[in-house]
Amino acid sequence: MLSDPTRVKILWALFQGECSVNALAELVGAASTVVSQHLSKLRLAGLVSSRREGTFAYYQATDAHVHRLLAEALSHAEHLTGAATGADPHSYRATGSAPGPGLDAGQ
Known about the structure:
By secondary structure, this protein is an alpha+beta fold. 48% of the residues lie in helices and 13% in strands. The protein has 4 helices and 3 strands. A 3-stranded antiparallel sheet has the order 1-3-2. It is elongated. The model is unreliable at 94-107 (pLDDT under 50).
């Protein structure tokens, strides 16, 4: 589920707070139909959940375990791409902070 950059961006955005499909689409720079398809897959995998309010659906990340998994994956990507070295502190922590400057969440 984390092999697609758009899904990684969606999950990271959801760890900042609950969002609608349109808000997520704007945050990740993708069409709402694309985001909706990714959300459907993430929901089936148990990584996100949703609630309905009228005609709108709002999505949230499921739990801290998924957040830690994503933070570790992004930190690992920093080291693989050379954006961070072994001595550098990790930019991605399971505290809800945004991705570090100069890094795309899809790396």
